[in-house]
Design brief:
- It is a single chain.
- The protein is α/β, with parallel strands linked by helices and 465 residues long.
- Helix content is 38%, strand content 20%.
- The protein folds into three domains: 161 residues, 3-Layer(aba) Sandwich (Rossmann fold), CATH 3.40.50.300; 111 residues, K homology (KH) domain (GMP Synthetase, Chain A, domain 3, 2-Layer Sandwich); 175 residues, P-loop containing nucleotide triphosphate hydrolases (Rossmann fold).
- Strands 2-3-1-4-5-6 form a six-stranded mixed beta sheet, sandwiched between helices. Strands 8-9-7-10-11-12 form a six-stranded mixed beta sheet, sandwiched between helices.
- Strand 11, helix 13 and strand 12 form a beta-alpha-beta unit.
- The longest helix has 15 residues.
- The radius of gyration is 24 Å and the shape is globular.
- The relative contact order is 0.09.
- The structure holds guanosine-5'-diphosphate.
- The site of guanosine-5'-diphosphate has 18 residues, from helix 9.
């Protein structure tokens, strides 16, 4: 098992998170900043993860008598002791210099950190969430410790930070036993199904619109909002005052990232300039699903492909929008051509959804929205361990892996380690010798058999000899 330290300045919600993870009212929650909490170590459970939360009580005692000094000493000890730190910031209040100081300390130590943006259920927490990206500790996980929101995302972030091998180290022996004796996974199944059904559509879906300059991003956002608050065209003006805009689409809350607003936030009084790579990257990281806008009259420019590649490398779900469809003369032929190019030029996202639209006339926007939501569901997809192992047997029988020095490679056990995007772990003999072509065979098979088109799929291999 591994150990976790919960660090952060007072009043960000550390104790509430502790209580939620340990499931007991051990910690004393006090709203007064700086009040010493009575925290004890606990055995934490988070979905299917088990870990120890290390004791940070008493660490404050010997520290210098300033808030900063106490925080510094406490955090230092906690991160040294733990395998991983959960660094909690308050998305509602925003960041303070103490957060910055703690972040710098965490960065310097170089140990695994999961950045947690707590109180994310609160109105106006987007700014704090966005600012948390600037701490240089990777992507913040928006949660609400109080309301229990974002716990599955937190679980996934922990698995990612510490690595699936380590996160599930204890289960190793059981896993081997299960595959060898072919027990029907009776115990594991319930918990698995629970995770499989975990898609949460009560949360707003975070969407970003990216694309080359003049592809029609601003026009599209305006159209979505049914208003004309953003000026478009070569002398584009900026009238947004927040970094995101939110609206409801057939009962689902959609939160769209406003790159213009964000740019302004990053540098006040900045002269208007075209979207830079850094801007796009920020938008991509903010989002869950990214709409990549192509100008259908000049599609698949080098820059278009670079943007798609960036989105997928960041592990995001992506939907292509072929914009300015109102200018296309032979829609059927052009669409067939674009679809063929998509499959050929973007093999890393086989099955990616591509929708012809016109931001100007509004054509295709319903369909685009539906595709955004469908893609998000695929990105969030979780397949039960029982199903995966039945599948693994079947694909291996159909197309056995090669032999190495007279012994056939055997794929023994498979489990999904996280979603968003889907990532799997397979334990197998001689994982080092498994050919790249076989890995592609597995990925394509997963895509087809579990309906996961258009999202990046990752497989970790663990040797099991
Ligand atoms: P951005 O740089 O990606 O935000 O692009 P803009 O939204 O500013 O659009 C660039 C230009 O393309 C403007 O002159 C728009 O009027 C035009 N444009 C955007 N979408 C469409 C569309 O669907 N059809 C047509 N015909 N023109 C469009």
């Amino acid at each position: 098992s591994f150990s976790v330290a919960i660090v952060g300045r007072p009043n960000v919600g550390k104790s509430t998170l502790f209580n939620r993870l340990v499931g007991k009212k051990l910690a004393l929650v006090d709203d007064t900043p700086g009040v010493t909490r009575d925290r004890r170590p606990g055995d934490a459970k988070l979905v299917d993860l088990r870990f120890r939360i290390i004791d940070t009580a008493g660490l404050e005692v010997a520290a210098p008598d300033t808030l900063e000094g106490r925080m510094r000493a406490q955090t230092e000890l906690a991160i040294d002791e733990a395998d991983l730190s959960l660094f909690v910031v308050d998305a509602k209040m925003g960041l303070t210099h103490v957060d910055q100081m703690l972040a710098e300390m965490l960065r310097k130590r170089g140990k695994p950190v999961v950045l947690v943006a707590n109180k994310s259920e609160a109105r106006g927490s987007d700014g704090g969430f966005y600012d948390a990206f600037t701490l240089g500790l990777g992507e913040p996980v928006p949660i609400s410790a109080e309301h229990g929101q974002g716990m599955i995302d937190l679980r996934d972030a922990i698995v990612e930070a510490i690595g699936p091998e380590r996160a599930f180290a204890d289960e190793e022996d059981d896993d081997e036993a299960l595959t060898d004796v072919d027990v029907p996974f009776s115990d594991a199944e319930d918990e698995d199904e629970e995770i499989e059904l975990a898609y949460d559509d009560s949360k707003p879906l975070r969407v970003a619109i990216v694309g080359r300059p003049n592809a029609g991003k601003s026009t599209l956002i305006n159209r979505f909002l049914g208003e004309d608050r953003l000026l478009t065209g070569p002398e584009a003006g900026i009238t947004r005052d927040s970094i995101s805009v939110e609206w409801e689409w057939h009962g689902r809350m959609i939160k769209m990232f406003d790159t213009a607003g964000m740019r302004r936030k990053a540098r006040v009084q900045e002269k208007l300039e075209k979207l830079s790579v850094a801007d796009s990257l920020r938008a991509i990281r903010f989002a869950e699903t990214v709409v990549i806008v192509f100008d259908a009259t000049i599609p698949f420019e080098k820059q278009d492909l670079q943007i798609v590649d960036l989105v997928l490398r960041e592990g995001r779900a992506a939907v292509l929008a072929f914009n300015k469809w109102d200018l296309v003369e032979d829609p059927q032929a052009v669409l067939a051509d674009l679809r063929e190019k998509t499959e050929r030029l973007l093999p890393q996202a086989r099955g990616i959804r591509a929708v012809p639209i016109s931001g100007q006339t509004g054509y295709g926007l319903e369909k685009l929205m539906q595709n955004i939501i469908d893609t998000d569901m695929v990105w969030n997809k979780r397949v039960s361990t029982a199903k995966l192992n039945r599948w693994l047997d079947a694909v291996q029988t159909q197309h056995p892996p090669p032999a190495v020095s007279g012994r056939r490679i055997r794929l023994k056990y498979m489990t999904q380690v996280k979603a968003r995007p889907p990532a799997f772990m397979i334990s197998c003999t001689r994982s080092d010798a498994l050919p790249e072509s076989y890995v592609r065979y597995l990925i394509n098979g997963l895509r087809n058999d579990f309906q996961m088109p258009g999202v990046p799929i990752r497989i970790h291999f663990k040797s099991a000899d």
